[in-house]
Amino acid sequence: MTTTTKPATRPARPLFSSGPCAKRPGWTPEALAKALTGRSHRSKEGKARLKLAIDKTRAILGVPDGYHVGIVPGSDTGAFEMAMWNLLGSRGVDVLAWESFGKIWVTDIVKQLSLTDVRAMEADFGRLPDLSKIDFDRDVVLTANGTTAGVKLPNYDFIPADRSGLVLVDATSAIFAQAVDWSKVDVLTYSWQKVLGGEAAHGMLIMSPRAVVRLESTTPQWPLPKLFRMTKSGKLDTAIFDGETINTPSMLCVEDYLDALGWAESVGGLKGLQARADANAAVLHAWIARTPWIENLAVDKATWSNTAVCLVVRDADVAALPASEQAAFAKSIVSALENEGVGLDLGSYRDAPPGLRIWTGSTVEKADVEALLPWVEWAFAEAKSKLRKAA
Predict the structure, then answer these.
(1) Which of 39, 132, 183, 271 is most buried, judged by most C-beta within 10 A?
(2) Beta strand pairing status for 167-170 and 151-152?
């Protein structure tokens, strides 16, 4: 149902960006009051704050003993590049890509690392590649949740426990919101500014014992920049995973991440965070089911993301337009919501099919998602009205 009457209720926080994401409810700059500013991150106190961030991460995520958790430069991109540059090259690689960032990993593996034994297994936006065709005797590179396509892995059951290769997972828009089977993962990376709404520029790198064996038993074929080096004298530099970061971190950002982790504990830890994301996404999914002009970009419901929900307009009149005009129609909805101040940063990613992308991670309040949707219907009705008049 659509209406040209503006809804009476507005979202209390119109923040639905897929990154940087909304900060936790109730956040104010006062959360940073205890930040260790003006102090060295290598001081006793500085290293203690960094180690606390690592320890809380391990506890909330349930990272198994023997896995290493570290804070590294460059957000999720830096963490994942660090893993690829250190670990790939000793055997063939299967790299999966079904959205923008997966395609970046394909480009880096083929054109930057110049690996030749590479199988790029790609799928269109909205679909997963055929997981049954992966060869786990090779190294495997994939994303857990396609932020720009709204397509997630349904589970980790397709990964064998007795694999020979490593599995590298970019989980930046999945972690804290979707379950991870740690026995099936050798490297997992994410950034603070995604699901927990932290500040940017810092990445998290989690490595299994199998990944450490690979790291210590092979030498990359290429030079490694200082920011990527994880070994000393051929052995894992464990100090990186105890809070001695490779380069200077922002202690303001560290304090903000600690604040987010404290909030996570207060809402029930990992299960509480997952439940909040699920509840938010369920509001959208129910709306999709009753709204004939909108569809989830993700085709298979088992792969529908509970964080970055990507939507496409399927109205018959709009579908009859040229592609450029369809994109303009979607942008007009996004602009109307932004102009009203009821929904910010809702446009689809630049490489994705035109439409809407609504973040439903745990730091978003369910009531705000519910309040947003009548406004989306209003914006659609306004755009349709203009379309009819133009015709």
Answers:
(1) 39
(2) unpaired
Task: Spell out the long-range contacts of 241-244 with Cβ–Cβ below 8 A and sequence spacing 24 or more.
Answer: 241/54, 241/68, 241/69, 241/70, 242/47, 242/51, 242/54, 243/47, 243/48, 243/49, 243/50, 243/51, 243/53, 243/54, 243/71, 244/42, 244/47, 244/50
Q: List 205's β-bridge partners, or say none.
A: 70, 189
Cross-strand pairs, 71: 204
The pLDDT tens digits of the residues spanning 8-32 come to 999 999 999 999 999 999 999 999 9
pLDDT in tens, 305-325: 999 999 999 999 999 999 999
pTM: 0.96
Domains (range + CATH), the chain: 29-265 (3.40.640.10), 269-390 (3.90.1150.10)
Taking the CB of residue 54, how many other CB atoms lie within 10 A of it? Answer: 19
Question: DSSP H helical segments within the chain, as ranges?
Answer: 44-61, 75-87, 100-107, 209-217, 251-266, 269-290, 316-319, 323-340, 366-390
CA R_g for the chain: 22
- DSSP bridge pairs for 142: 169
Tell me the pLDDT tens digit for each residue of 226-236.
999 999 999 99
Structure tokens at 269: 């830890």
